[in-house]
Amino acid sequence: MKQSVKLIVGNWKMNGLGASLAEAEVLKDALEADPAACRVVLCPPATLIERMARLLGGGAVETGGQDCHDEPSGAFTGSVSAEMLADAGARLVILGHSESRASFAETDAGVAAKVETALAAGLEPIICVGETLEQRDAGEAIDVVSRQIAGSLPVSLTGQPFAVAYEPIWAIGTGRTPTLEEIEAMHRAVRAAMLKRLGAGGAAAPILYGGSVKPGNAAEILAVPEVGGALVGGASLKAEDFLGIIRGT
User: Fold this and answer.
1) CA nearest to 210, candidates 244, 168, 181
2) Lowest-confidence range among 114-118, 158-162, 170-174, 230-234?
3) 3-state class of 205 per DSSP?
4) 109: Cβ–Cβ under 8 A, 6 or more apart, which residues?
5) What fold characterizes domain 6-85+105-113+139-246?
6) Residue 96 above 50 pLDDT?
7) pTM for the full predicted model
8) Which residues of 92-116 are buried (b: 16+ CB within 10 A; e: fewer)?
9) Which residues are catalytic?
10) CA–CA separation, 222 vs 19, rounded Å?
């Protein structure tokens, strides 16, 4: 199912200081002067969320968070709750990113618990799934991703706005991307798994592609059936590069 409005999300990861907000302002000004045909979100580190949200003003560019704890509050030193993100001005949150799954041994059940907390705080979750190179080479990619969807998407998502981001782990930050045929096959499999898990509730949510998306390849990737947008890493740090991807919609 092709989405009528693409969702383009920039994940700044652990990059960005106060001076970096100048790039967000350039992006905002460009999209206010020449509106995009898609929905645009920036997810800066937690230290910049409030300042970015105030700068962007909820207009052409929305603000999101990169993760949240699965509890609304408590003795979790260094963690950020979904309520804190919402209070700072975030409207969306990335959950289950492969880097979190790998670095913090995050499980599907743990991701699902975070999704529940995000929904309770009024945040729109972007739930990430994806396989390693070893899993792909072993012919297990679709099975791995389907299991992640079954375990990471709580049934409470039905009727709520959310997105799923497919990110082949071996393509993130490597400059290597799957073929367009591989992307289409996986996105169709992701949709099938979403429908199996949520029924009609899994029919409309966009499926984003993430993994070395650049201005030079964005348009062809975004034209692939079932690709409802993109989750962009490094190329979202510079307004000019991110705009090149946005204009590809």
Assistant:
1) 168
2) 170-174
3) coil
4) 151
5) TIM Barrel (3.20.20)
6) yes
7) 0.95
8) bbbbbbbbbbeeeebebebbbbbbe
9) 97, 167
10) 31
Which one-letter DSSP state was computed for residue 76?
-
Name the token pair of 172: 């993130």
Report the alpha-carbon distance of residue 71 to residue 93 in Å, rounded: 15
Mean pLDDT of the chain: 95
Query: pLDDT band at 249, cuts 50/70/90?
Result: confident
The yes-or-no verdict on residue 3 having pLDDT over 70 is no
Q: How far apart are CA 160 and CA 37, in angstroms?
A: 23
Q: Please, is 71 exposed, middle or buried when counting C-beta atoms within 10 Å of its C-beta (0-12, 13-18, 19+)?
A: middle
Q: Please give the helix or strand (H or E) that residue 193 lies within, else none.
A: helix 180-198
> Which residue reads 């000004």 in tokens?
29
Sign of torsion over alpha carbons 107, 111, 117, 121: positive
Question: Which residue, 150, 153, 141, is CA-closest to 186?
Answer: 141
Structure tokens at 170: 């071996």
Tokens of 155: 């049934």
3-state secondary structure of 10: strand
Picking from 218, 191, 146, the residue whose alpha carbon sits closest to that of residue 2 is: 191
pLDDT class of 46 with cuts at 50, 70, 90? very high
Residue by residue, DSSP assigns 113-154 as HHHHHHHHTT-EEEEEE---HHHHHTT-HHHHHHHHHHHH--
Tokens (6 digits) for 41: 């979100």
